[in-house]
């Protein structure tokens, strides 16, 4: 006999284990908050902007084809900025105690859409160090790109600075708590449905019909005494020596 589950049964399963679901959700949010505020190290981000052009010819002030060529080369510049040719010199100049691969993981290079502006962002636990690394990358790139691609028109539009009252970019405790709360609710609901599915005890007449595939002819209800534990007093009866009951 095929079993079907109605929405009412699902809602009853959730109501029956609502405390467990809420406990799991709030426990996950609490753990996420504790980890975000007390265990994870804050990470700060600074960025600098570069404008990269090809070498200009004296007789041409503006050449549309040259601009289009520069736009097509932006992705190449992005790769060069994160290459060992640039990062090795940055590590040497700043005397950083990290490898090229580790420094590469701290850097994000992006270009504005349809522009020759390149954004170099650096994330570090120390905001001052993040700004120093970003600025040094810009200076090294400005110097080395002349030899690499014969580009001698690199301008630093905005150097990286540490703003007053600068906050970390990660972790984001409130976002982490919200995500943990949602995940905890989903896990609690899933666990409630799993426990309900594994529960094969007989509770109702319908359970008997499903398990035995037989109709229920009758049921015996439970007769409880008065509420709050009060007992029911029945009238006493006395019996004579012949065993006949007489009224009190």
Keywords:
single chain, 248 residues, alpha+beta, Alpha-Beta Plaits, 4-stranded antiparallel sheet, two-stranded antiparallel ribbon, 9 helices, elongated, disordered C terminus
Summarize the structure.
The protein is an alpha+beta fold and 248 residues long.
Any chance you could write out the topology, listing elements then pairs?
Layout: H1 7-16, H2 18-39, E1 44-53, H3 64-72, H4 74-81, H5 84-94, H6 100-106, E2 107-111, E3 117-124, H7 127-149, E4 153-158, H8 173-198, H9 205-212, E5 238-239, E6 245-246
Antiparallel strand pairs: 1-3, 1-4, 2-3, 5-6
Helix pairs in contact: 2-8, 5-7
Main location: membrane
Family: Belongs to the CpsC/CapA family.
Subcellular location: Cell membrane
Q: How much is the average pLDDT?
A: 82
- Rough outline: elongated
Percent helix range: 40-55%
Number of helices: 9
Question: What is the number of strand segments?
Answer: 6
> Would you identify the CATH H-level superfamily of the largest domain?
EIF_2_alpha
Structural class: alpha+beta
C-alpha Rg, in Å?
37 Å
* Largest pleated sheet: 4 strands, antiparallel
Instruction: Please report which band the strand proportion falls in: under 5%, 5-15%, 15-25%, 25-35%, 35-45% or over 45%.
Output: 5-15%
Could you name the CATH class of the largest domain?
Alpha Beta
What's the SSE pattern? Answer: HHEHHHHEEHEHHEE
Q: Tell me the number of structural domains.
A: 2
